Amino acid sequence: MTVFLRSLRALILPALILLPVPAMAQMCTIPADPAQDATQYDRPDDPWIYRGTDIPVDRNWLFGELPNGVRYAVRRNGAPPCQVSIRVAIDAGAINETESERGFAHLIEHLTFRQSRNFASGEAIGYFQRLGTSFGIDTNAQTSPTQTIYQIDLPGADRPKLGDVMLRVAGMVREPALSAENLAADLPIVLAERRERQGPDQRIAQATQEVLYAGQLLADRSPIGTVEALEAATPASVRAFHDRWYRPENTVVVLVGDADPQFLAALVEQTFADWQVAGPATPAPDFGDPQMPEGADPANPVGETAVVVEPGQARGVIYAVMRPWEEITDNLEYNRGLLIDAVAQAIINRRLEERARAGASYLFAQVQQQDVSRSADSTFVSFAPLTADWETPLAEVRGVIAAALASPPTEDEIERAVAGLDVTFVDMVAQSRIQATNQLADTIVNAVNIREAVASPETFLEVFRGMRDRITPQALLEHSRKLFTGQVVRGLYLTPEAGEATAGQLRAALLAPVAVDASAGQDLTPISIATLPPIGQAAGPVFRQALGTGLFSTTEQLEFANGVRAMIRDSDNEPGRVTVQVRFGRGRAAFSEAEAPYIDLGERALMASGMGELGQNELDRLGAGRKLGLGFSVGDGVFTFTGDTRAEDLADQLYLFAAKLAMPRWDVAPVERVKASMVLGYDALDGDPTSVLNRDLEALLHGNDPRFATPDPATIRGTTASGFREVWLRMLQQGPVEVSVFGDIDPEATITALSATFGALPPRHDAATGPQPEPFRAMETGGDRVVLTHAGDANQAAAVVAWPTGGGSAGLPLARKLDLLAQLVSNRLLERLREADGASYTPFAASDWPRDNDSGGYIMALVQMQTGAVDTFFTLVDQIVADLAANGPSADELARVVEPVRQNILRAEPSHGFWLGQLQGGTFDDERLRHLPTLGTDYLGTTPEEIRMLAQRFLADRQARRIVVLPRGGGVEAPSR
C-alpha cells in the first residue's frame, strides 16, 4: 500500500465510525430502600456455609437463615451490569426417588415451568422472553442425582421487575400445578427428551454407572428415569414426591447481581419466609458405599468389571479406585491436602501424556480424583487404546502410575506442576472483580451440593503459596499412594467388536502384577523466549491511528511495512485478561478439493507440530508458569490463531504465533496421532441422527464440496506427513495477516512486542484460492429430500429444512434481521412441537451468515423426533413459513425475540471479546466498521413488516433443501456386556 493510500485511509476511517454503537447500556444498580428492605430475621455472625470451619468468611456474601429452614446467600456483583442471577436449589434429585418414582424429580422440573401459583398454563416461557431472557440459556432448570436447580439469569433488572420475578419463581417452586392436564402435556416432552438422549453415549454412560457404582443407588438412578415409571405417574404420585422433598429445610436460594445485598436479602424473606409444609422432614435415603469384594486382596481389591460392545464407538478403558464418600469438615487443612493431591495428579498426567507422545499404544490417558454424587470418593483412570490390543496400553498406563507410587517425583516435576497451579490461582484473583453473576451463584449451589464451604480467590492463592514448603517429594509420594488406595477397584472396557475381551479377562489384567515404567524424567529445564531465534529484524508500525472517538478511542489500528495490520484495544474492566487473535490466509477457500482431507487434520495437528526449536514437550516447558494459548481454527475464508493470555506473557504469546508463520516445525508424531484419533472416532459419527448431521450437514449445505466434508478413514489414512507439510507450509505463507490484541494491556509495550514479532515477518504472498464454495442447490421439487441413515435406535430420526441466503460483510444489517427471522421460526417450532405436541424436545432454527465469503449462508430448521413423524415437521415448517410470509409476526411475538437480543448486547458490551468479535477483519474490510454503528438499530428497529418481507424473500420464494436421517436396518439392540 502506498503512502498516499495510507494517508487517505487516515482521513476516511474515523468518518466511518464516529457514531458509536447505540448507547443501550444504562446504570441500573438497585439500591436498598430502608423503608421496604428491612429484614425481619437476624443473620448470625457464623454464616451457615462456614459453620465448623476455619476458612475465612468471604464478606462479599451475605448469608441468612429463615425460621422455616430456608437458607440463602446474596451478593452484589456488576458483571454483567444490570443482571441478577437467581438460583433455587432443592436438595433432592434422582437418588431420592423410589423404584416406582424413577424420573419424577426431572418430571417435576418440567411441570414447575408449565403452570404454578402465579403462572397460567404455558405462560412462563413468554413471560421470561419478554423480560429479555433466552429460553434454555437464561431460563432453565437441571436435575442431577442429588439436586434440582431452578435458574434464572435476569437481564435489565430493576426493583419492580425483580420483585415480580421472585414472586413467580417462589410460586413455581412452592406451588406447581401438578394436575392431570399438565402431566398429560409434559410427559410427552420428557419422553421425547429421553428418546433424543438415547444413543451410544447414553448407553455407555449408563453401563459405566452400573458397573462403577454396583450395589449403590447411583448405579441405576439416571435423572431421565424409566419409561415404565414415567408412564405410570399420576398427579397423586408426583405430588407425593414434591411434598416429600420440596420443603424449606431442603431449599437454598441464591441471588447475585447488580443490586444492594440488603434488598436481595429482603426479597428472599418476602417470598420464602411464609413457606410452611406439614409433617416432619423425610431423611435422605442411604446412598450406599463402595464395598470391597468378599475375599479380595486389600492391596488390589478388584471387584466388578464389564465389557460393553457398542458398534461404531471408539475403544476405551476406564477403571476406578473407589472409597466411601464422607462428609468432611471443610477446613484449611483439608484444602491443603486437596492441593497436594492436585499437584500429584498433574505430575502423573504429564508423564502419561509424554508416554503417549513417545509412541505408547494408547492415544491419551488421564487420572482424576473426583467425589461423585455424595456416593463415592474415586480416582478414575481412563485411556483410549490405539488398536484392539487393550492389554498392552493397560499395562503401560498402570506402569506409569506404579512409578509414581514407587518413587517420589523430582523437584523439577514439582516446580512445573506448582507453577501451573499458581498461574491458575493468580488468574482467578485477577478475574474475581469481573466474575459473572451466574458463575458466582452456581458456586454456592455447587458448594451446598458437595457439603463444602466457599473461599475467595485471594484465600486460595494465599493458602497455596503459604504451603509451598509442604509440597515435597515425600508428601507427593504419600498422597499419590492414597489416591490409588481404596475399598474396591472396578473397571469397564468399551469396544465396537464382540469377542475382544471378557469381563474376567479385564479383571485378571487389573489383578496382574505391574512393571514400573521408569522412563519418566525427561529434561524439564524451563525455556525462555529470550534464548530462541528472533523472528527477524524488528520493525515498528508505519501507520498508527485511533479508530474513532468514544467507545473506539482506546482501539488503535496499526500497519507495518511488511503489510501486516493490527488492532489493539486497551480495556481495564477485565483485569489481567488479554486475548490475541491472528487472522491470515483464505481458510477453506485456499484449498483445492484434492487437498480437503488436510483441513480437519491441520485444525487439530498444526499447532502441535511445533515451531522453530519448539516441539510439543518444549512448548510445555515454555508454558510452565505462563498463561499461553495455541488455539487454531479454519474458517470458510480465513485461518485464525487464538490465545488467551495476560500482559506479562503477551510478548511470548505473540512470538509463538509469529514463529508458526515464520519458522514452522513439522514434527511427524502429532500428525500421526491426530490421524489415529480421527480414524478411531469416525465410526461413532454413525451412531445416532445428531452424529450423522454433525458429520454430513455442512457438506450438504455447501454443494457437497469436499472441503466441508468429514474425511472418512480411508481418506485420512491416505494423507501423509509430507503432504501435510507441503499443504500447510503454503497456507502459512500466503495471504494478509491481521493481529488483534484486546484486553488489559500496555499499548506501548504491546506495539513493541508486535514490532519484534509480526512486524519482523517477511512480506506475505498473495493467497491462491481454489474454487469458491457454492451455496447448496435446493431440491428440484418440494417433495424431494436427501435421505441419510444412522445405525442407532429404531425410534430416532432427525429432519432439516434449509434455505440459502448469502454472505459477506456488506450484508451485515440484513444478516442481523435474518437472525430475528430464524429465531421467530425457532420459537414457533418450540411452541408447537415441544410445548403443545410433545413431539420433540429440542426443535430449533438458526441463521448462518459468513462474513469472510460472499455466499454460503443459510437459515436452517432442525428437529429430532420419532421416525414416523418427520412429515409432520415438514408440514409444520411449510405452515410457519407461509404464515410469516403472508402475515408476519405480531408485535408481541417480535418483541419476545428482540428483547433477548438487546439484553445480550447490553451484557456483552463491557467485554473486550465482544468488541473483538465485532471488529475482527476490519483492518482489511471497511464494511465491518461501517456497519458496526447500526448493530443495535438493525435489531431493535426491525418491524413486523420487514420480517414478513424477509420471510417472503428468503423462505417462501426459495426452494428449501430437506434432509432426513432415518435408522438403518431397524436400529440396534441393547449393547452386550
UniProtKB/TrEMBL annotation:
Pfam families: Peptidase_M16 (PF00675), Peptidase_M16_C (PF05193)
Family annotation (InterPro entries): Metalloenz_LuxS/M16 (IPR011249), MPP/UQCRC_Complex (IPR050361), Pept_M16_N (IPR011765), Peptidase_M16_C (IPR007863)
Superkingdom in the source lineage: Bacteria
Domain spans labelled Peptidase M16 N-terminal: 81-199
Extent of the signal sequence: 1-25
UniProt GO MF annotations: metal ion binding; metallopeptidase activity
UniProt KW keywords: Hydrolase, Metalloprotease, Protease, Signal
The UniProt record lists the keyword Transmembrane helix: no
Residues in Peptidase M16 C-terminal domain copies: 234-420, 729-898
Similarity comment: family membership: Belongs to the peptidase M16 family.
PANTHER family: METALLOPROTEASE, MITOCHONDRIAL-PROCESSING PEPTIDASE SUBUNIT ALPHA
Record protein name field: Insulinase family protein
Organism: Alteraurantiacibacter buctensis
Phylogenetic lineage: Bacteria, Pseudomonadati, Pseudomonadota, Alphaproteobacteria, Sphingomonadales
